[in-house]
Design brief:
The complex is a heterodimer of chains A (344) and B (327). With 344 residues, chain A is α/β, with parallel strands linked by helices. Chain A has one domain: Rossmann fold, CATH 3.40.50. Helices cover 42% and strands 10% of the residues of chain A. Chain B has 327 residues and is an alpha/beta fold. Chain B folds into 2 domains: 184 residues, Rossmann fold; 127 residues, 3-Layer(aba) Sandwich (Rossmann fold). In chain B, strands 3-2-4-5-7-6-12 form a 7-stranded mixed β-sheet, with helices on both faces. In chain B, strands 9-11-10-13-14 form a 5-stranded mixed β-sheet, sandwiched between helices. Chain B has a two-stranded antiparallel ribbon with strand order 1-8. The termini of chain B are far apart. Classes of the chains: A alpha/beta (344), B alpha/beta (327).
Chain lengths: 344, 327
């Protein structure tokens, strides 16, 4: 696991407390919400209340937190299928997310997308994409439209280390740089493309260097710290909004669980997982809140209570919701209302 | 007032008119701007609309198709030109997995109003990789619409409808027939997607075809007329949705059907038409539905092999004589 542990000078270290209390509490609450939501989702999967594929975000929470605090609600986000955390970060209510995981009509996409495909147009969330790397050109196109209309908005286009080996990434990087599109590429490098470690897929293990082939400003970021992510995304967003074109951040993070719930992750050593648990973004932030007296124990407890209730409520909401009516099969395939489906 | 226009110029008019009408429409693809289009379909458009709206891309079909999908999801109306549909195979992930599915995945929140267009079908001795038809491949995918037409007037009206459509549309043109001329009305008009056209009325047999196979089909109908066989000729124009009603109505009158289709036979457009007819006109049929397809092979280079592979008027006439039991 040299990619995540190596100490190149490019890796940003978590700084001292340079942000205000409100920011730390916001980060902590969001990260805890994602963690608790995902833990509950895993349980429900075990009980077969959630079916299909289910890829959880546990370990990567600081990435969602640091991105959201550094961009605006007008900016767009598109990502891959490990996306519950990204959607919660955008502000999609836990109720709608949990109901979607259970395939209920009250889900964020009415039970039509499941774990991999949350979309929320009102929050400029362009979805979870199930084809590795497919969202990279799409995010580039979303950014293209922003530039076309002359807005100041950017599109955060997220993908995993596995997608960095797809041709779609290279085609997109090339056109985004040529046309100076307002796109922020973020690779969440959690070290594994499903079960294949980064070093087994290429000679180029420093994924940020892929940007250099296109003269794109590219850096690595410590993804276990919301401060580092926030700082890097803020700097990149400023560059992009100045009209200078795309920016690429390789955020080094870690997923504690397998690729999906059906993956026991035997390709990793216990030691490696334990090492990362020491860097757990939720625990580290909680420790920091208390040790540096950013917040009181009561305040932390209150957030825990709030998040716990919210997640429990989302389960109740989802369980009490209905599955979509079978007639919904024939909606949302075409915008055309009277499309003549073949039904014989 | 109508004037005579080549297919390429009719398509150019369709795009230019829609771009004048709607600022959110733009054209992107390989060689569409400075080169004026590999087949000159976009001639003069860079001059009129500028590089913001007529955009040359690198040779990266997957990438620019995906950029089109993202731009469409974010409120624009892209026209993505493929130099040929053979090269669009590289972009099928974006067409099939994304353009076609965005509306369903997002439960109606994100529409994808995009047109993918380019020539489909063989164009002489271009050999295996440059000679394929893609109508049946794409028509298989719910979420897409597929139009395929070489009549200049109809192609113009269909392309304008496609650009205004809120759903993704794949438009199939013809490399060999970009210079094919026809009467095109002056002024504003649209041709609806999903409606076939009866090109020639007849009573003894129905011939159904589309795209450039319309030419040998009409030629065969002409020859058959000389022998006293009256053929009705239908141009499908749209493959998805497929206007089976027009075909059923015709077969109820003629009692015989030959489908002429440059697709390969297995699971092709002709197979779908034959299914519809056996289902909805079974009692009216006086002969089995017959089809004239491209051969069930790849298309090699040598001229004798091209002739053997392609449907032509002689093969169509032979098929008609089979279903009319004429020796």
């Amino acid at each position: 696991m040299s990619t995540v542990t190596d100490k190149t000078k490019k890796v940003r270290k978590a700084g001292a407390t340079k942000y205000d209390k409100e920011m730390y509490l916001k980060w902590y609450e969001l990260m805890l919400r994602i963690r608790k939501f995902e833990e509950r989702a895993l349980m429900l999967y075990g009980q077969q209340k959630i079916r299909g594929f289910c890829h959880v975000y546990i370990g990567q929470e600081a990435v969602a937190a640091g991105i959201e605090s550094a961009i605006t609600n007008e900016d767009a986000i598109v990502t891959a299928y490990r996306q519950h955390g990204t959607a919660l970060g955008r502000g999609v209510p836990a109720n709608e997310c949990m109901a979607e995981l259970m395939g209920k009509e009250t889900g964020v996409v009415k039970g039509k997308g499941g774990s991999m495909h949350f979309f929320d147009k009102s929050r400029r969330y362009f979805g979870g994409n199930g084809i590795v790397g497919a969202q990279i050109p799409i995010g580039t196109g979303i950014a293209f439209a922003e530039k076309y209309r002359g807005t100041q908005n950017l599109c955060v286009t997220m993908f995993g280390d596995g997608a960095a080996r797809q041709g779609a990434l290279h085609e997109s990087f090339n056109m985004a740089m040529t046309w100076k599109l307002p796109v922020l590429y973020i690779c969440e490098n959690n070290g594994y493309a499903m079960g294949t470690s980064v070093e087994r897929t290429s000679n180029v293990m420093e994924l940020y260097k892929l940007g250099y082939a296109y003269d794109m400003p590219s850096e690595t970021v410590d993804g276990m710290s919301p401060e580092s992510v926030h700082e890097a995304v803020s700097k990149a967003a400023k560059h992009i909004r100045e009209g200078k074109g795309p920016y690429y951040l390789e955020i080094r993070t870690y997923r504690y669980k397998g690729h999906s719930v059906s993956d026991p992750a035997k390709y990793r050593t216990k030691k490696e997982v334990e090492e990362y648990k020491e860097k757990d973004p939720v625990k580290v932030t909680e420790r920091k809140l208390l040790s540096e007296k950013i917040a009181t124990e009561e305040e932390v407890k209150a957030i825990k209570e709030k998040v716990k209730n919210e997640v429990e409520e989302s389960v109740k909401f989802a369980e009490e919701s209905n599955y979509p009516d079978p007639s919904e099969l024939y909606t949302d395939n075409y915008v055309q209302k009277d499309y003549p489906y073949i039904m014989d | 007032m109508a004037r005579e226009l080549a297919l390429r110029d009719a398509l150019n008019e369709a795009m230019s008119e829609e771009m004048r009408r709607d600022e959110s429409v733009f054209l992107m693809g390989e060689e569409v701007a400075a080169y004026n289009g590999a087949y000159k379909v976009s001639k003069g458009m860079l001059d009129e609309f500028g590089p913001k709206r007529v955009i040359d891309t690198p040779i990266a079909e997957l990438g620019f198709a995906g950029i089109g999908v993202g731009a469409a999801m974010n409120g624009l109306r892209p026209i993505v030109e493929f130099m040929t549909w053979n090269f669009a195979v590289l972009a099928f992930d974006q067409i099939v997995n994304n353009a076609a599915k965005t509306l369903s995945q997002s439960a109606g929140q994100f529409k994808c109003p995009i047109v993918f267009r380019g020539p489909s079908g063989a164009a002489g001795q271009l050999a295996q990789q440059h000679s394929q038809t893609f109508e049946s491949w794409l028509a298989n995918v719910p979420g897409l619409k597929v139009v395929s037409c070489i009549d200049p007037a109809d192609a113009k009206g269909l392309l304008k409808s496609a650009i205004r459509d809120d759903d993704p549309v794949c438009m199939m043109e013809s490399e060999l027939l970009y210079g094919y001329k026809g009467e095109v009305p002056e002024g504003e008009y649209l041709v609806p997607i999903g409606v076939a056209a009866v090109r020639r009325e007849g009573t003894d047999v129905t011939l159904v075809s589309f795209n450039k196979m319309m030419l040998p089909t009409l030629e065969a109908a002409e020859e058959l007329a000389k022998e006293g066989i009256s053929a009705e000729v239908i141009d499908l124009r749209s493959i998805r949705p497929l206007d089976h009603q027009t075909i059923v109505e015709s077969v109820k009158k003629t009692n015989r059907l030959v489908v002429v289709d440059e697709s390969w036979p297995l699971a092709g457009v002709s197979a779908e038409v034959a299914y519809e007819i056996q289902k909805y006109a079974f009692d009216y049929l006086d002969a089995p539905v017959t089809r004239v397809n491209a051969a069930d092979t790849s298309l090699p280079y040598a001229p004798t092999l091209v002739d053997e592979y392609m449907p032509n008027a002689a093969k169509i006439i032979k098929a008609v004589k089979e279903v009319t039991y004429v020796k």
